[in-house]
């Protein structure tokens, strides 16, 4: 994996949206954090944001780094990893277009990143500086409320994940994660939703799936091999190709 310095990349702002389009949804409304803002204010904020691009494997930030900005995900996907007391790391979240990260560090007294964020595929974000983030919260109190709701939703999802670890078998956890990731990648790919567009590629390694599901790489491989024998998926280097989403949904009880 490669690491990019904090403020490198394509970060020269221009008039309007830096990529010639507004990001998730119309005028950025697809970002839940900004949805409460008037469209004109969203466009102004997006125009002032700094665009960043990342290749697969690029590290956006390291856990413990000083923070000076937050990111709105426009394209691509990111893995969020945290350190364990054992010295190992674990993947605790997976982010895609419309998501955001980095806001917790701007709210913490120590101003430090709480996780390491890595690009899983070519990705683009819009960067809001700490000054812009605080101005956003001051000028639009609804953003504070939206942020509180979104943080509560994250806590709820983490609590659900903990319950799954305690009460759902590993095979079904693996199938559920692969299914949900496949839906995410299908919906953000070109020609999304076209049943005839071929397999959906989930560009995660089996080690990353093990992190997400609380298993080991060998046990995750065994679960995936059962799907391979049924023709539901095929495995490649650093990827899972899903050929039958409906069958996968049945296997994971969806």
Describe the fold and architecture.
It is built from eight helices and eleven strands. It has helices at 39-48, 103-107, 130-139, 141-167, 170-188, 206-213, 217-229, 245-251, and strands at 50-54, 59-61, 69-75, 78-83, 89-95, 100-101, 116-119, 123-129, 200-202, 233-236, 239-242. Helix 3 packs across helix 4, helix 5 (170-188) crosses helix 6 (206-213) and helix 5 packs across helix 7 (217-229). The two termini are 35 Å apart. Residues 168-246 form the HTH crp-type domain. Keywords: DNA-binding, Transcription, Transcription regulation. Residues 1-31 are annotated as: Disordered.
Question: How would you sum up this structure in a few lines?
Answer:
The chain contains 8 helices and 11 strands. With 254 residues, it is an alpha+beta fold. Residues 1-31 are annotated as: Disordered.
Helix tally equals 8
Biggest beta sheet summary: 4 strands, antiparallel
- Low-confidence runs (pLDDT<50, min 5 residues)? 1-22, 190-196
What percent of residues adopt helix (DSSP H or I)? Answer: 25-40%
Order of helices and strands: HEEEEEEHEEHHHEHHEEH
Number of strands: 11
- The end-to-end span amounts to 35 Å
- Strand coverage percent: 15-25%
Region (Disordered): 1-31
Domain Cyclic nucleotide-binding: 33-136
Domain HTH crp-type: 168-246
Organism: Nocardioides lentus
């Amino acid at each position: 994996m490669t690491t990019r310095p904090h403020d490198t990349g394509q970060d020269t702002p221009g008039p309007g949206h830096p990529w010639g389009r507004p990001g998730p949804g119309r005028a950025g409304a697809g970002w839940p954090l900004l949805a409460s803002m008037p469209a004109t204010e969203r466009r102004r904020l997006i125009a002032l944001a700094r665009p960043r691009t990342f290749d697969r494997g690029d590290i956006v930030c390291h856990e413990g780094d000083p923070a000076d900005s937050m990111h709105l995900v426009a394209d691509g996907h990111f893995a969020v990893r945290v350190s364990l007391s054992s010295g190992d790391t674990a993947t605790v979240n997976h982010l895609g277009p419309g998501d955001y990260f980095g806001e917790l560090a701007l709210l913490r007294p120590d101003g430090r990143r709480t996780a390491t964020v890595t690009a899983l595929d070519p990705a683009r974000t819009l960067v809001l500086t700490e000054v812009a983030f605080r101005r956003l919260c001051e000028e639009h109190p609804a953003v504070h409320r939206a942020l509180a709701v979104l943080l509560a939703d994250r806590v709820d999802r983490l609590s659900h994940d903990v319950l799954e670890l305690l009460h759902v078998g590993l095979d079904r956890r693996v199938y559920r994660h692969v299914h949900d990731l496949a839906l995410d990648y299908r919906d953000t790919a070109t020609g999304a939703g076209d049943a005839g567009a071929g397999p959906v590629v989930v560009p995660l390694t089996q080690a990353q799936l093990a992190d997400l599901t609380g298993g080991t790489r060998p046990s995750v491989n065994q679960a995936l091999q059962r799907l391979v024998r049924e023709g539901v998926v095929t495995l490649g280097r650093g990827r899972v190709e899903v050929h039958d989403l409906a069958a996968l949904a049945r296997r994971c009880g969806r």
